[in-house]
Fold these 3 entries.
Entry 1:
Amino acid sequence: MNTVARPWSPLGALRHLNWVLLVGLCLLVAIGTAFIYSACSIRDEKAVQGLYLRHAQVAAVGLAVYLTLACVNYRTLLRGTWVFYLGTLSLLVAVLVFGDVNMGAQRRVFHVQPSEIAKLAVILFLAWFLGRRDAPRGTAAFLAALGVLAVPVALVLQQPDLGTALVFVPTVFAMLFVANVSPRAFWTTVAIGVAAVVWVLSAVAIAESWEVDKKTHDSRLQVMTGLQGFQQERVAHFLFPEREFEKGAKNNRGYGSWNKRQSEIAVGSGGVWGKGFCKGDQNLLGYLPPRVSFNDFIFSVLSEEAGFAGSMTILALYALVIGAVLTVAFGCPDGVGKLLCVGVAVMMFCHVFVNIAMTVGLLPVTGLPLPFISSGGTCLLTMMAAMGFVQSVAIHGRQSAPRF
């Protein structure tokens, strides 16, 4: 039965505000600002030294966006989500046409990284498409959802940015699972995906035994797996970490192996309580490359300076925030709000898991930032906006009409 919507009031919003979510985000942003300062303190460039101030300023704007979205009913906002989705696709196309080239990849246009925005756009679009009471649940809906997923993923892969593209997949499939869309097609696709991952890893492992020149090796493997040369090397270094120390290894400092090795040393040398704020040797001496220490490898700086205790504090805060998002999700009777929160929770978990696993050597090196802590304006604003939608579900989800 539909419930009668109550008029919005500031006191009512405060009463339903999820304070755990808000406080957790503020603590993570504060920690991120502090350790970006530490990571950039040895740099000579004034612009880089001031990145911690930029992080704080973007966080302030993000907090305003967060509170604004929280005050507006998410169902009202999501009615035009298809416009947001198509606009994001336009930005992804613009990146490929005249985006900034950095380190062999095109990921930014107009000082914005559209691939980060695209994750939220896909979540909002599918939440509205699959969460409505009259939404389809058959194979056609499943294929339509895959189409919504495939277009931005294909554009992101062209940049190329494999790490970001892979985050879309578990996020969307978690939403499909919760929405119970065509279980047979869902599990068939999951099985095919697992088989594809096994095939890629097996192909890279077998290719190590080929006695051919590098050009032939890379071209053959690209045909078999679809991975480009640097992506092949990152997977190979992950599968065979000992080979970077072998005589005549292809490139001991390339493809992330140097960064990965120095990151592991930084994390391991922090001990229980760390070396102290702004006292991490790997960062201060430049072994952990300065160009990655404040973004992709910020967790390495944090672990070295704050130790195991600091690392566990960060993990506890992330668990608190993700737990708060899931609490809102499964306490919401509305399917749209539920799916929105599930998508945001899985997206954030993927970022945290992949980034930290990468820094400790459990996964290949990839360019995924650590939410709220890594330097990066687009990612921070997008995550704050995503959490604003979750807070809107916490406040307005109880007034929603259709049950899931």
Note: The CA atoms of residues 24 and 316 lie 10 Å apart.
Entry 2:
Amino acid sequence: MDINDRFKDYKRIVIKVGTSTITYPNGKLNLRMIERLCWMLSDLKNRDKEVVLVSSGAIGVGSKSLGFEKRPKLTREKQAAAAVGQAILMQIYQNFFNTYTQTVAQILLTKTDFEHGVRRTNTENTFTELLSRGIIPIVNANDTTSTFEIEFSDNDRLAANVAALLHSDLLILLTDIDALYDSDPKKNPDAKRVKIVEKITEEIEQMAGTAGSEFSVGGMATKIAAAKLCVENGVDMVIADGSDATIIEKVIDGEDVGTLFIGKN
């Protein structure tokens, strides 16, 4: 399979960053990483790509502002942290994107926005209008009002739902591990990277890890679940190392990085 040929015509791209990607282990924001991310996404826009950013981190960032040492456990605490953290995140994203003359919009979603017919249509129409006007939507779960998302969901699956809703060409999940491996590379130095997945088998589903930090909730299992949703909806998906935002350009240019899941035609 010629990856370069597959990627060169991609137009609509969703990028998801996890809490561990945009924060330090202590829960504080990694401003250098966020700035590079905004630079890279702005450059994709300059290449005439349509870009959607799905960003975790609101609860983690809000938790630090509210004085929590770890991710809070009570729903009301998580909702309060999300309310504070989302405002902080959007202000920082806005400031960095302004540097590159890019306009952004905030979209907060719940599960109902994807399941209810009218709300699903309205959500898709909003995205379509924003993208047609060259605006970068920044998406997060509406954790302040939706306890379902806090307790049972994750932003990997949120990103996959967004990618499917928008009939996107590609979803890139930036995470704290550079790819899917046949075993845990943190425990097994001989673990082998899985370069391409053309079918998600039971063996692939068993290749799962755990959450990366005190302030993040997703592990490799959530990424495989997201991949299944993408594959079924004809969207390609890549798991890649989020420690350097330039990995996005490498993925788009078809370099041999991360793990590519092939969407059904």
Note: Strands lie at 12-17, 50-55, 104-109, 136-141, 170-175, 196-197, 236-241, 259-261.
Entry 3:
Amino acid sequence: MRRRKPRGSRLTAKRKRRFRLRLVLVALALILLSCVYIWQRVTVITLSAQAKELRLETKRMQEIRKYLEVEVADLSSVPRIEEKGLQMGLTYPDLDQIGLIRELPDSTFLETRGFAKNVWARLRALQKSFLPGDEAVAKEIENEP
């Protein structure tokens, strides 16, 4: 005599397989989330170490900058430059060797009316200062309205 399996046993086998599949999927999800969490923590620790190194490097660079500013102030002092110049054989210029440079007024004329006219007037003034007299080769162009 053979015993027959009850009809409900097939359903329980399917349920067991589904349960196992769900259990495996949940375990995989937990493992994946754990890996992501561990990766995130390692990244945070690495970046915080790099940030600390950069802060130390910034502090060192600021100290170097302060030192170099003091060095520049020392090297560019007028008495030191005069002393070095005299050591190299340089002398002060005579009065006839000194020339004056004409300073142009500031550029506020750019905001005034007649910008092109002002620019043309400036160019003519420059032309006269560089090419005095009949040597001028530039010609004025009249604007047609």
Note: Helices lie at 8-75, 78-88, 115-130.
